[in-house]
Specification:
- This protein is an all-alpha fold.
- A two-stranded antiparallel ribbon has the order 1-2.
């Protein structure tokens, strides 16, 4: 049982590593491209790819997911995450927006687990999450002075709760439906919800080899492949644990920036990487317990 949980946890970690390539990929996008434009294209390409993969696997034969309110709610949460995150980053900056979003999501996941599923994440999860969140703050900010925009922070918190809700609702859907069907249908509907932005922004950048390459990587690798891995892991482990394991994303992003983009990390950022890694190691040793259980 423990070995199985370790395997499925590793799938979530692999997904987080793929998500961590997003920032590096966006670095190579043509100059002047709107982040929200990139986010909309990413979800459109990823949603189409996930739906095609689900169809190829025969996961769409049983199509009751199309008629469930929770399916549309999960899709809405994923679409809202994109909007809240990019709007928050635009208002308060990349560092603060990313820290608030990534740092708040595990906290919201723990609260949702306690309220909706009557599951107490436990002390190990709390310690691991606290350590990892502190590590993320140090890693992303590097000790620099940051300007806090209240509206931007609220938007980033909206992104954090949207992601946690997506994970919680998807966990319920995965209990009675195959992962391929859940991700394919949820992301396809989410892409449709964001499709108006595809007509609002200039998409000329997609006609370049550079732009098309970025869009394909973001859609196929850091979205489609990543969420296939994430959903298979999420189906077998508690969702607060899955959300906290997602904190491997900024570590990957920092490592790519260090080795590929030749960025320099401050000592505090290096300490942050170590703390996140330590938190993830602690998390791998603990599970969830039903409220009131010893």
């Amino acid at each position: 049982m423990k070995q199985n949980e370790t395997f499925f946890s590793s799938l979530v970690l692999a997904a987080a590593v793929l998500w961590g390539t997003t920032g590096t990929a966006q670095f190579f996008a043509p100059p002047g491209v709107s982040p929200l434009s990139i986010g909309s294209v990413r979800l459109a390409v990823g949603g189409a790819a996930l739906l095609f993969f689900a169809w190829q696997r025969g996961a769409l034969v049983e199509n009751s997911l199309w008629f469930k309110g929770t399916t549309f709610l999960a899709a809405g949460c994923m679409a809202a995450y994109q909007l809240f995150f990019f709007a928050g980053v635009l208002k308060t900056g990349v560092a603060v927006g990313t820290v608030v979003t990534i740092g708040s999501a595990p906290v919201f996941a723990g609260l949702l687990s306690l309220i909706l599923r009557r599951e107490n994440p436990g002390m190990k999860w709390t310690a691991a999450t606290l350590l990892s969140v502190i590590g993320c703050i140090l890693l992303i900010t590097g000790g620099q002075k940051l300007a806090m925009n209240p509206i931007g922070v609220i938007l980033a918190l909206g992104a954090g709760v949207s992601y946690a809700l997506y994970a919680a609702i998807s966990k319920e859907l995965l209990m009675s439906h195959p992962p391929e069907a859940v991700t394919g249908i949820v992301f396809f509907i989410g892409a449709l919800q964001l499709s108006p932005f595809l007509f609002y922004y200039n998409l000329e950048w997609l006609k370049t080899i550079q732009g098309a390459g970025v869009a394909l990587h973001l859609g196929l690798v850091s979205t489609a492949l990543a969420y296939v891995l994430f959903s298979h892991g999420l189906a077998k482990i508690p969702f607060p644990k899955a959300v906290t394991l997602s904190l491997a994303e900024p570590v990957t992003a920092a490592a790519l920036g260090l080795f590929l983009l030749k960025e320099k990390l401050s000592i505090l950022s290096e300490v942050g990487m170590i703390l996140v890694f330590g938190g993830l190691v602690i998390l791998s040793l603990g599970g969830l317990h039903k409220k009131g259980a010893s």
